[in-house]
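Researcher: Next entry in the queue.
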Amino acid sequence: MALVNPLGGITRLEQERVAGAIPDFFRELAKRAGMPLHLELLPRARVVAQWQDGGADLVVGTRPRQMNPHADFVPIVRLRVMLVFDRRQASAAPQDTLALVERSDWRGLMVRGAALTDAIQGLVDRLEARKRLWLVRDWTTVLRMLLAERAEFTLFSPTLMHGESSWMDREARERLVARPLSDVKPHEIGVHLSSRLAPEVRAQLVHHTSAMARDGTLRRLLLRDHPPELLAQDLQFLDSSEISP
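Model: Structure for this entry, 245 residues:
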């Protein structure tokens, strides 16, 4: 079983079918490996809980602390999380995480249970300790609160934000800007393969997942719904070609 969580245009429910680049990546993986696939869409917290309880064979995520360290992890792309804020605040926007923590007048928003790297989790913990971060249920709520000026920033990816902002009009979308923090580096996103899988099955899935990361499969799937200049902002693909705006 493969579990995915809703994430804008990348993973979504479309006419009662789990759709998007990541579900189709799993479908192609199952096809190449000659294996059946059961795909289920769940909230992120339930994905993590079922993975920890042995209720899933495949999930996509970072190398977060809550994942099983004994499972195989196969990187498929590198993603850079950025500071997202109202364009009108651009001249005052912090340039790095230290400046962000020290900006006591900047309040932040994050989704409860979001998959975070250790570095971003550390930043979130520091902001929470200063009572400057609110945790909300989903990214739509985050974006609505930013537009309503109830907070000044979030930490997000332009590619992921593209899918989550489809309900906005053009003026609202143009109000929000994403800027890299100089000390936040791209991190690996990959497929976690359960240690419960038979060794020969796991080896075959590792092989095909790695091959699909290198042959441009994920890039092609993402380009169906995302312009190349957007992907170039925050994604580093593992195949040999480069995205050109």
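Model: The first strand starts at residue 2 and ends at 4.
Researcher: Noted, moving on.
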